[in-house]
Amino acid sequence: MTDAPLWTDLVSVLVVFSYFLLTTALLIWGERRVVARMQSRLGPNRVGPFGIGQTLVDGVKMFFKEDVTPEMVDKAVYSVAPMVGVVTGFLAVAIVPLGGTEAMGSQVALFGESFTLQVADIEIGVLWFLAMGSIHVYSVFLAGWASNSPYPLLGGVRASAQMISYEIAQGLAVASVFIYAGTLRVSEIVDIQALGEGLVSGMPNWFIVPLFPAFVIFLVAMVAEAGRPPFDLAEAEGELVAGFHTEYSGLRFGMFMLAEFMGVIINSAIIVTLFLGGPAGPAFGPPEVAWIFPVVWFTLKTSLFVLFFILLRAALPRFRYDALMTIGWRWLIPLGMVWVLATGFMVIVNEQVSNEARFGIAVGGIAVAGLLYLVAPLFTSKPATDTDPAPSETLGDDLEEVSL
After folding, report:
1. CA distance 230 to 12
2. Segments of 134-280 assigned E as strands
3. What is the pLDDT of residues 287-308, one digit of tens each?
4. Residue 72 has what pLDDT?
């Protein structure tokens, strides 16, 4: 506990939550504009400059739109489900150091008090994020269950299996960060990246360099965790009408959309914090405004991954469900397990050698992990059997049925 007055905590909460809520609104507008440009459309362009006020108008429409509740639903669970997604989203951002840390010297000075723009700097900060992601899946599953309708239920079951699969991979990626940094406190992870020495002299100590496989695992898993294309199988409109929120309308439907877009911002912020130094970056000018630069760097880094989410939506088709599960269980989870072992090996050996050998150890660890990962499928692949039909035969049968 600190001796800072209560109002400093209230300011931190207000600034952090307002920042993420505002960026979520901008994401909704930005995604519609970028996807429209990629598809030779105009997108929102009537409300405000470049249509930037369209998100606000849509939010007002959702708030006042008639909320129809079907008779067959479980009303209590049906009403709680959308709120779970929004609440867990807000709680997840509490551990993100938006404006830097105390060790970085980027505290906000206001009315004679200094404080950081981080709501809660707890010992198990990264585990807190994973826990909120685990609770978030209840929003989707309960929505499908409470609807008492087949298609929403299928969407909820899909979401549950998807989240379990990719949470394991995401947890293994976080385990690599924990082993390498030696802490789960988010501010300390940021401090190590901002103030520590890199593997190569003159380079930042961002974890994306020594833990690149973990970064790739987390990158793929966060897209699946957010339920975004090409992993949006829980709301596949070509198969499940609208998926888990088929029976929802009005404000409660809008809350599901808000939770989805908040998931994009939150996952982008977490991957920046864990692998790209978070708010770390060059700062200059008088100390009174030094806290502004970490916010700027954090926003720029996060925007890159937000753009990545948008480009995926416009460029890639939705995966089949078996392909989705194959990626998680057959590729990401084995790679995550191998890389956790390789990270532990690098850390133990690194304690016994000089700083000059760090880069060689990292390269050797990556090589060993890559070799194990390439060899593993040889022992797990399904052998071909004589009973399996040839592709040409099945294709001929399908064409014959179509011709009939």
Report:
1. 35
2. none
3. 667 778 888 999 999 999 999 9
4. 85
